[in-house]
Amino acid sequence: GRSSSSSSGGGGGDFGHALALCSGHTATHVLPIVDGRMDLQNARRINLGGRHTSHFMYSLLRLKHPQHMHTLSLARAQRAVHLHSYAALAYREELRLWAQPAYLAQHRLVYQLPFVEHTLSAEEAEAQRLNKLKQGERLREQNRRKREQDLANLRDELVRRKHAYDMRHGPKRAFKEALASWGVRDDEELAQTIDALEVKSARRQNKLDGVEEEAAPKEEPQPPEVDEELLVTPDERLTEEQMKLKRRQRFLKTMFEYRQKARIEREGNRVQEEQRKREEEERKRSDLTGWLAELHQRRKDLAAKREKREYLKSQLADRKSRLSQLRMRMIVHQLDEQAKGGRRMRDKDADRLHEQDTFGMDDDDWAIYRQISNPTGEDSEEEAEEAEYTHVEALLRENDAEFDALLEQKERLALANVPTAAELHQVVLDVERIRVPELLFEPHQVGVDQCGLLETIELVLRNYPDSVRRQLLGNVFLTGAHASFRNLEERVRRDLVSVLPVGTPLRVFSAAD
Fold first, then answer.
1. Which residues, in sequence order, are bridge partners of residue 476?
2. Cα separation of 116 and 499, whole Å?
């Protein structure tokens, strides 16, 4: 039959002496043939064969393409081993080549898996569109029911807080227990929470009904009547009733000052917003092109903020994410410091807390965490950004005739980047092409604790004198399934040349079939 060969150092071959490298299904044997007979006493076996290389390729492809877990089969992996794998002449150097994008794009192979491409008809496309509309309507209805339920819960809490507030004229013990249950100190603080809940309930009702809040001017609030002399009097000189009156007057004065400050700040923001609108209108009339460019940039920045916010939300919602775990641990540490009266923890205390910390193991802990993350159930900053994004888009649609065409173009580009059905059913072979044949030289990659092919050949040759060794190297014969690997003859020859004395005759060839 036909054979291919490579030689080094000259020398033909006495076919009565040969070294056969036989690769089978479960093992690879190095068999010395002396005087035409196999010397089994000096033969060696490597417990690695075709079964191991096929399973190794199968595992690599399943890890690389988990979406094709049920489509990839051992038979396909075995076919990839025999048709597309080759022995690397310098394995480490070639690994570095495969790490380069240009080399990877040029030498990788794409294996097409079977698939059935389904093309939507006009009726199916219309049904799909209507189904999406129904799903959107169903989601909106679910959100509305959730908002209604939240509003009902808020009103129920408001009723219970008002009932607790009405208990202030009853037994003091029951009233103190009611205050403790709501986490407030006195009736003034309870009244403050009731006012806040009433405002929040009204806002949510307006939002649910789609009614915009009117920014009607309110009457100028009058400062509370307080006794300034009482407020500056030291506590040790006051009776219990005077102390209570002082706390109440100080609270009223502080709340009035706070509301005045907030009102002035709101008025300043309103004036600034009106000024900004006038400047924007002036800029629109003077430089429409520059103004539109600024609007496009604002829309781009807001879209980037939205994407970042959605990413952070997904990370915080995932219990196993690093960001969520870090924030949970910060909450626990803060609570621990508060329990210690604000003292800083020593290093050993922090280590003990880290070891004993089980907060987050229970679903109730995460419910508390979500409440801490958003205690009011509202995100005013997010709503403001969304409102600004909608406003900017409305301005662009009104003043930029090319805006809608630009959106359609971006949608088409996004659809063009969506992989086709054929691309979704493809397997890519790249560095696996050299990793699998390398098992013959490095069996430890699959857990076989034995020497590779080169070391095993050296062990066999040590059992013979120099004259017989030279004759064996004159006929190194590769056979078995792995003998079909491209470059395997050259790889064996190079590895042997690197360990043999200079001028040693060497001839490596493989079976024709």
1. 19, 508
2. 54
Tokens matching residue 132: 């999406």
Instruction: Give me the amino acid identity at 243.
Output: M
| Token representation of residue 154 | 């808020």
The CA–CA distances, whole Å, from 222 to 194, 226, 232, 252, 259 equal 21, 12, 22, 11, 11
Cα 463 from chain centroid? 57
The DSSP symbol for 73 reads: -
SS3 486: strand
- According to DSSP, the β-strands at 18-23 and 28-34 are antiparallel
Q: How far apart are the first and last CA of the chain?
A: 8
User: From CA 408, how far away is CA 402, in angstroms rounded?
Assistant: 10
* Neighbour-count burial of 36, counting CB atoms closer than 10 A to its CB (0-12 exposed, 13-18 middle, 19+ buried): exposed
**Residues in the chain with pLDDT < 70?**
1-15, 211-221, 319, 323, 331-381, 383, 411-417, 513
Tens digit of each residue's pLDDT (9 = 90 or more) over 413-464: 665 667 778 888 899 999 999 999 999 999 999 999 999 999 999 999 999 9
**Distance separating alpha carbons of residues 357 and 336, to the nearest angstrom:** 11
Longest dimension (CA), the chain: 123
CB 509 within 8 A of CB 2: no
- For residue 430, give the nearest of 156, 138, 131, 64 by alpha carbon: 64
